Amino acid sequence: MSLLTHHNYPIEIKMKNTFFIILKVFIESCAMHYREVERGKKISSRLKSILSLLIVCVASFWVISCSQEPKETPGESKNSAEQVENQNNGRSHLSISEWASCELPEFHKKFTEKYPDKPPQFTFHATDEERYAQVKEGGGFDLIHPCSQFFRFYAEGRLLQPLDTSRIKHWGDLSPALVEAGKFNGKQYFLPYDWGYESLLVRSDKVDKIPESWGDLWDQRYAGHIALIDAADANHIVTSMALGLDPWTTTPGQHIEIRHKLTKIKPNVLAYWSNFEEIKEMVASGDIWVAANVWNDAYASLKEEGVPVKYITPKEGRLGWMCGYAIPRKAEHVDMAYDYLNALLDPDSQAAFGNMYAYGVSSSAALARMDQEKVKMMQLDDTNLKERTIFYKGWTVDQRKGINERWNLIREAKK
After folding, report:
1. 3-state secondary structure of 102
2. Secondary structure of residue 159 in the 3-state scheme
3. CA-CA distances (angstroms) from residue 172 to 42, 162, 188, 330, 353?
4. Which of 200, 246, 379, 402 is the most buried (most CB within 10 A)?
């Protein structure tokens, strides 16, 4: 261990001074006795004694320096203390697996007020597949924010600890239907937080006829101006609904039918999209007339900017997604995790989240504090939500593997 890893500087300086005094004496004695040797004399016992003393002092110097406990001195940076804490007790900050844009400080204000010197550390994942793989391998997270189609994998894989809902202040304000989606085998593993739609976004000034069905994506009048989301499960569901099939119970024979149907849409497709900014730019430019599986935020943002768009509900129903927070089984900072969950569910903070992205929120108290014009525009208070919206369900491992494999083949096929 290097001396530079310690900070007990006065002791080090004294020890170094003693060391160099002894070294100086030794060198001078060596020089004197070398001259004596040149004259034919033998090395005296005094030189041997000094050499022995030097060896003992050097050994003592290193033993003492390595055994010194680090002590903070005036002026030492706070980072040094944090590094020591991280080395001795693990990391000191809350670690969260998050979606980009969900980490803004206004969404967890009360956590920041309680821990001003310990801001959360975020790891952003672009897909649920990435997040699940990392958590399964150990992850190192105190909180994760997956979506409902992956809830089952986490719960049945015993990767989570059940939530103690008595520690969550605003639990009673949550939607019972959303709460139920986070429960497995009688235990609550997920805190529902955000939800929204996936539907058809249309440039109303570019088309003669507004689409009414997911099946209209195959209509030749939109050829070369369709954008599909680059997500295997979404395209499996949309194509299944266009064929009149139940997406969650498809058979091997129906998989062939779905694959052929998806292959036929390729001449209509101009682009595949994967994030908010991408699809927003495509639609705003006028290149894309009909975009599939678009989220609330893109529609609200384009509408606010004056782009002529419509967000329709297909006759088969719009898709719905819901995401929530969970505490991994190996979380290091469970108390801080509950503090963060309470900060998220603070009605004003969750309302700020809903207003920012025009998303649905899980808390009735937060919904009441949102911009009510935005609530009406996005139908976030729709009492017939379940009848008009088909929420994602979980897949089995084999189902997801097959869906991904079929989508990759279709994605790579030529038009």
Report:
1. coil
2. coil
3. 93, 17, 14, 27, 19
4. 200
